[in-house]
Write a structure and sequence with these properties.
The protein has 424 residues and is mainly alpha-helical. The chain has 14 helices and seven strands. The strands form three sheets. It has a three-stranded antiparallel β-sheet with strand order 5-6-7. The protein has a two-stranded antiparallel ribbon with strand order 1-2. Strands 3-4 form a two-stranded antiparallel sheet. A hairpin with a 4-residue loop joins strand 3 and strand 4. Helix 8 crosses helix 11. It is elongated, with a radius of gyration of 32 Å.
Length: 424
Amino acid sequence: MEQKHTPKAYHLWPASKLVRVKVSPYSRWTDAEWYFNNPTAGQKKSRSVITWDFEMLDGSTFTHDQWVPLLNACRRLAWSLIVDPQCGRPLKVGSISSLSTTIRYFVRWMGRAGYANFGDLNEMTCQEFQEYVVADIVTEDTDDKGLSAGSISMYFSIWIKIYSQGSLLEAAGIRRMPRVPFGGKSAGEVAKEITETIAKRIPPMPDAVFLPVTQKAIEWLSVPADDILRLQDVYLSAHERGRRGLPYGPGNSPSSKAIAGRQAVQAFQFSAFPGSSEPWHQPLHIRTATPVRSGKYSIQRGAIQQLRDLVTELRDACSIVLQAFVGIRISEVCGLKALPIDPTTGMPACVEIQPSRSGLYEICYVKGQLFKTTETPITVTWVAGLRPRGATYFPPPIRALLVLEQLFRPWRTLAEVNDLIVSF
């Protein structure tokens, strides 16, 4: 049975009948702009216009052929909100410009993200849009103190409007949004949660700080890491042997072992970076002074204390690389496990390498536990990089994990634990 349409139910009409339809005394359905007569005194004409020929992020206009299906859906959505809203009051003519703004922003995001119709929008895309708004509007806002839930709630309201008008859109042949967006929260509630989170959030690290810090951290994974690992082995071996050949005893007393270890550390020669003739670090027989209490006092650091400092500094460099390039939290770094070592690859328990689908690459993963956003810790994996299949090179995060495994291996054995990082 053919469905009967009311004169104003243009959102349900077939496209062939909409070509010559007038949405107002000034505009047709297919016009690049819809102008409406605003009866409210004192309001600008611009508040009563919906613009359809705006520029998309790829440089095309929304009225271009490639966007016709989405344009058709948006026009039907807008008209249904004017004449037959399924939730709330009919859209006032004086509020039409706000709808135009939110549609433009929303459609540009859809085009950028590769979504072609409302039926593609689900819980995952909902989260993507929230993250996009945070990055695009909230983070880039130069005056975060003036940011309010009201100023960004309109960007989320379009999702709720699309869902509430779903039955009408589906009747017009438009795929409807499958589930209620934002878990049933209102646009205001979503915006409030975001602004409250942003207000408490640590601001992102500027590139001027991030780039030199991470570059220096990666640099520490090369020559410095090799030297520190070798120096620690030298110290532990010398401490274990003690002072042999003493005239008054075997030299195995605690004091003799301490002296043997210190002498070995003081005699250690650091390497130089490729292309440099100077060692990257001064010998540890040179005592250093560490300022404390704003420089009023200083503490003398001997060879063993300096070795300890190098161990902790290398640990910190590895942690920076992991957090910067994998994106894991410090609690997740501390929760990584080294044991058991994989007998085939020799990798610590927190590293996994799998072939890509094509078989051309090897994808490196970090395995650990997620502690935040969950009631109990859960096992998760993070992508840490990839390399051509058969390559011996390790992405910086994996190199950092291998360094940490070797760096704390003696102390891990001593403490009888399987944690990657050990405090000593």
